Amino acid sequence: SFLNVFIYLAQLIITIYLYRVFHVHRVGKAALDSVKLKGRSFLTLKDFNAEEIKHILWVSADLKNRIKHRSEYVPLLQGKSIAMIFEKRSTRTRMSTETGFSLLGGHPCFLTPQDIHLGVNESTTDTARVLSGLADIVLARVYSHSSLEHLDKDASIPIINGLSDLYHPIQILADLLTLQEHYGSLKGLTLAWIGDGNNVLHSFMMSLAKLGVNLKVATPKGYEPDANVTQEAQLLSKQFGTKLQFLTDPMEAARDSNVLVTDTWVSMGQEEEKKRRLKDFHGYQITMQTGSVAAPDWTFLHCLPRKAEEVDDEVFYSPRSLVFAEAENRKWTIMGLMVCILTDYTPQIPKLKF
């Protein structure tokens, strides 16, 4: 009868729902048992294995789903505070961290060089100890990576690298989530870096191989990535069976690549070198011609702010450009990272495919 069919369908729906809830909880618990992130600092992706990086991205995607798509209030950081030290100006790092921490119920405290000048008005050791008693976590955007290492050594709370001269790991988390969302998985992709051998590239070099992503790097002579980072990246590539190439020809790097990436050619503090740098990087602008030799599904990334000499408008504003999704994901990934470091949160969505 109709009633029996209705009862059967209702029981089936309830069974499927309970299975999904149990399965997600069980998978989430198993993942948490194997990944230990709470209380750890985040200075470089070199210190994090594949499962740990994947877990951070999983939590990030979960928060994005709950807060953005389901309009939930998720006060996981209620009662907590973050000290944000900025030696360098920023749009995305400041906005993503400040709004993200507030959205999770916490209190962000923004500190400029006028408020806190590391190692000048007060020693870095004393600053680390003072902030350890006033905040739950520190994000520092600094010139020298050694400043972060000094803070981390003397602080009793976690330190997050908001950018240094050597690494920019929180940018890479956003890039990886953006690519995972677009392609559905990361393993087997080839990323072509076309530009300066800088801190963003260094962070790609410390993470991509662990996730099964190949990397081709094209830089002008004299602008190669750091030699120690290169040596470590070569070891990772060999360990995980990925391809790593260093070239000087942008077109050769782009050939058959899925993702074309560049960044500023003149970083903060390099303004006096601008004229020489623009000359040395002639021919490195990413255009549709560059993309013509890439894989059919090629996309473009840039961590911003962007200058026209690095990528032309046709590429930057095209459907192949993921730069604005990438910029938004800075928020969800820094939120995911902070939740991982400060809580034992279990994501509610199924694990992402990598």
What is the CATH level 1 assignment of the largest domain?
Alpha Beta
What distance separates the N and C termini?
Answer: 46 Å
**Mind describing the biggest β-sheet?**
5 strands, parallel
- Into which percentage range does the β-strand content fall? 5-15%
- The DSSP helix count reads 13
What is the CATH topology of the largest domain? Rossmann fold
Order of helices and strands: HHEHEHEHEHEHEHEHEHHEHH
Low-confidence stretches at least 5 residues in length (pLDDT < 50)?
none
Overview of the molecule:
With 354 residues, the chain is an alpha/beta fold. The radius of gyration is 22 Å and the shape is globular. The model has no long low-confidence stretch (mean pLDDT 93). The chain starts with a helix and ends in a 12-residue tail after the last helix. Helix 3 (92-103) links the parallel strand 1 and strand 2. The chain is built from 13 helices and nine strands.
In short:
The chain is α/β, with parallel strands linked by helices.
Could you name the key traits of this structure?
354 residues, alpha/beta, Rossmann fold, five-stranded parallel sheet, four-stranded parallel sheet, 13 helices, 9 strands, 46% helix, 12% strand, globular
Secondary-structure topology with pairs:
Blueprint: H1 2-34, H2 50-69, E1 81-86, H3 92-103, E2 107-111, H4 124-134, E3 137-141, H5 145-154, E4 159-163, H6 169-183, E5 190-194, H7 199-205, E6 214-218, H8 227-240, E7 244-247, H9 250-254, E8 259-262, H10 274-280, H11 288-291, E9 299-302, H12 313-316, H13 323-342
